[in-house]
Amino acid sequence: MNIFQIISLLLLPVSEISLSNNDEQSDEEIFEEYENANEVFPHFFNITYLNEQTPNYEHMRTYLKETPNKGIGVFAKRKILADRLVMLYKLKIFNYDNYNSLSGGEYSFKVLKRLENGTEITEESKTADIFDETFGKPRGRIPFWGFLSNEPSLNQSENVRCEIDNQKDVYEEGDIIIYKFLADRDIEKDEEITWCYGDSYIRDYESNC
To answer: Which region is the signal sequence (predicted)?
Structure first.
């Protein structure tokens, strides 16, 4: 189940940030205009730092490991039963007027507003993206590592589903949005935690999505 199949989410991930004015540009040219998340928040992608700054790291259900072709990945430290909370993902709401996309929108989410009649419309002026507090202290034994989780490779299958944790009808600039990742099935020890980012995500690799 990919992110676009999750019912009642108010935010959906996208790989492009307001590209309507860049129709004639290639993906490569568009991506070059954005700041690289690894350069803005280098500590977010440093396993040593993340381990040291995660209280009770040894008691987490998951651990971080470098993978040959994906970079950092999130893995099950022990068997995780279906429907158990695995990890969290924290983002901040930005107005496009005051926003510089990171890594071509690689970590960004589209923002939707729910009207009184239940209809959901896209907030064209807003987006949700990682920020300086995306990585923070874990909630109990559940880390905020959602931004580090990868898509499944061809020999893998996604094993978590994404649900909104603090749902609101309307999100304002500066609001914090948190997603929770629940095990979609039993996850075996040392299995990588994976999910599909959605059909709009621009990939330069093969995945089982």
So the answer is: 1-20
Task: State the first-to-last Cα distance of the chain, in angstroms, to the nearest integer.
Answer: 9
Whether 12 has a pLDDT exceeding 80, the answer reads no
Residue given tokens 């990742």 in the structure block: 181
Asked if pLDDT for residue 15 goes beyond 70, the answer is no
Q: What is the residue extent of each domain of the chain?
A: 3-19+27-183
Q: Backbone dihedral region of 199: left (phi > 0), alpha (psi from -120 to 50 degrees) or beta? A: alpha
Give φ, ψ of 27 to 5 degrees: -55, -40
pTM of the shown model: 0.76
pLDDT at 142: 94
Going by C-alpha positions, the residue among 89, 118, 49, 114 that lies closest to residue 193 is 89
Alpha-carbon distance of 10 to 98, in angstroms, equals 21
SS (H, E, C) 130-169: CCCCCCCCCECCECCCHHHCECCCCCCCCCEEEEECCCCC
- Both structure tokens of 155: 């020999």
- CATH assignment of 3-19+27-183, given 2.170.270.10, 1.10.645.10, 2.60.40.1740, 1.10.260.40? 2.170.270.10
Q: Residue 171 pLDDT > 90, yes or no?
A: no
